[in-house]
Amino acid sequence: MRERKIDSPTSISKRKYDHLNTALHKQVQYEHVTTGFEKYRFIHQALPQLDLTTVDFSTTFLGATLRAPLMISSMVGGIDEAGRINRNLAQAAQEMGLAMGVGSQRCAIENSGMAETYRVRDVAPDILLCANLGAIQLNYGYGIDECRRVVDMIGADALILHLNPLQEALQPEGNTNFSGLLEKITDVCRALPVPVIVKEVGFGISEQGAHQLARAGAAAIDIAGAGGTSWSEIERYQAQDENDNNLAGSFATWGLPTAQSLQMAKKGAPSVPLIASGGIRSGLDAAKAIALGADIVGIANPLLMAAQTSADMVMQYLTALIKGLRISMFCTGAGTIEELKHTPLLID
Hints:
By secondary structure, the protein is α/β, with parallel strands linked by helices. Helix content is about 40%, strand content about 15%. The chain has helices at about 10-25, 80-95, 105-110, 145-155, 165-170, 180-190, 205-215, 230-235, 240-250, 260-270, 285-290, 300-305, 310-330, 335-340, and strands spanning about 40, 60, 65, 70, 100, 130-135, 160-165, 195-200, 220, 275, 295-300, 345.
C-alpha cells in the first residue's frame, strides 16, 4: 500500500513562499562548483562561410517547433506572487516561440484555489507547455489520476516529473522513501497520453540514472546539473537550528556539474532527447551544451529575476542570450542546430 502523507495547503504554500523569497534575495548559487562549460572552447572559424543573419537555430522538440532551442525551466506556482511571474514568463515564451514548464503543482492538487497561479494558456496558447509534479509523490499517495489532473489543469502538452532526493533529505519531514519509485515512473510513462519528461532539480543525472529513465520510457530527460542554483543552499536558509544549517552547508559542493552530467546522460540514454539546465547564463553556454549532446537548454534563475518586473524584461534577457547563441554558431561555421551538434570542441 502506498503511503499517504499530505502537508496542509497552508504549510505547502508557506514553503513555496520561503523558497521563492530565498531564491530571489539570498546567495543560493553554487560558489565552489561550476557548470564545467568553461573547460571547453570551440574551434574558431575565421571563414565561417555563413551570413550571420541566416543562422537558423529553430528546432523540433517533442513534436513541437521552437524558434530557438530554449525552455523556460520550471520555477514557481502555488502562491499569489507566482501567478504574475508565470504569466510574464509565459507571455515571453509565446512571443519568442519557446517552451516552458511551470513549478510543482502539488499545491494546486491539495488546494484547488491555487490552480490559477499555474494557468497561462490565455497568454500563451501556442507554446510547448509542461505540467510538473514531484516524482516522489508517487510513493506518497499520488498516481496516474493526479498526473492527468495537473496536465489537464493547465492544458499542458507534457508532464515533468522532478527528482529531488537531496532536497527532500534536508527538509524537516521531507518525503524520502524513493524505493520502488522507478517502477511507478514507468507506469506513468506508459499510461499518460502526453510525453513525460524526468528532471533533476539541480544536482545532475548520472549515466546510470539516464539509462534507468530511458528504460522507464521517459520521453526526455532534463539533467539539471550543478553550477546554477543550489537547492541545498536554499534549504540551508530554511534551517531551524545551527545543526540543520551546518548539515545543509556540508552539501555545498554536492552534485554533477552540468557539462559532466550532460555527457554522462548522453552515454546512458543515447536515443533520448536531453535538456541541459543548471547554471546556463549565456548563449555561449547554450551553444556548448548543444555541442556536448543537449537538444535544448533550460534557464531558470535569471528569468525568475526578470519576471518579477515584466515580460519585456524576460524577453530582453532571452534576446541577448539568443544573440550570443547566434554568434557562437556563426563563428564555428554551424548554420543550423543539427550542424552545431556536430561541431568539435577543444578541452581547455
